[in-house]
Amino acid sequence: MMQRAILVAALVACGAALAGVPAALAQGLPTSRTELAYSYAPLVKKVSPAVVNIYTTTTARAPRRLPFPFPGMPVPPQAGERVQNSLGSGVLVKSDGLIVTNAHVVKGAEEVRVVLADRREFEAKILTQDERYDLALLRIDVAGEKFPFLEMRDSDSIEVGDVVLAIGNPFGLNQTVTSGIVSAVARSAGGINDSNFFLQTDAAINPGNSGGALVSLDGRLIGINTAIYSQTGGSVGIGFATPSNIVARMVTLGEQGGRIVRPWLGASMQRVTPDLAAGFGLARPAGLVVKEVFADGPGAAAGLKRNDVIVALRDQLIDDEASLRFRLSTLQVDETVPVRVVRAGKEVTIHLKLAAPPEIPARERSALDGRQPLSGATVVNMSPAVAEEMGLAEWRPGVAVVEVKPGAYAGRFVRPGDMILATNGQDVKSVEELKKRIAAGISSVSIGREGMVSTVQFR
User: What is the pTM of this model?
Assistant: First the structure.
């Protein structure tokens, strides 16, 4: 009897406590979809019509090896040809049918087909593609029809922890939506594209998602899904998206038939290490130390000095070379920007007018041949313009490798992007000088690659 009395008392107390609770909570489970507190369905309905599936067709041509090639035996025209199909995703960014995707999605494509969310299919024309930033622009045009599209949001307004949706075509599964958060907003991931600067997310991204949309909860585009980190080929929660600020620049220039040209500061720099930070009196090891200011360059005109530490460009913090490349890629030539530098322990602001990287000296593009170690390599004189095209943060005079023939002897030890620094222990400063050295005979070559120098000896 006593236990029953306690139970009744407890039920009465619970009833009294629930008396002041809203009815929806007191009922426990929601009775309709409108009572469900969290659902992305309205957002997905708004943005998914602007995300498209992209199918490409490429004919791979390779000579067929016949087992018994008799003399005069006819070979059918299609011999050695096979059709390759690939898939990816894209995003409509204008109502006139302009689509943004990754350059690697349409690379080498002979035919591009776009399938909208409503299953309509169109042939698409490639307007432009920039492999350095892994972006491409496509166009579908149907008698002036207006298509649904996504507006872009300033990717600098995104913060770590913001909820995002990824929409694309993974493994050919049309219109797949995944959710996650922004894991990092300034992730440097080398080897993916020229800017090496990405939004990182744990929203599931898989093969086929490339070129798809990463959207914020206000329904705007914040990035183009570009790559994943994975040891298996599937999603492990580390995906990278090209920020919308780069995408917007590509859209503006690409429609005009141009390409993204990263402005030139006219200075060489190096990353701030912990030792350098202590020496310069910095609170943390971040920023770039100016090693040299080139005469007649934008930096010299603005008053930039050797040993200045660049810490911010237009109020955006500069932590390393990747962040500087990204910030410059979003700016226009002839634009004047405030640059914050630490000079002699004090922070000052200079106003720097950006300039296009000059092609001085001239390239003198030369294909090297003959019986010598660099045979099969194509080289040019290094200049700020060449450095920009190669995705380098800085440049120095010398000779750069821009191409190596498949199977060439030079391919054993050099690759595009390398610098030929010296031969036989003597510095090489121009293509003309290199060709003279080759003619005289070379026994060693010093090669610069990603900040490292190696020397190859020949006998």
Answer: 0.76
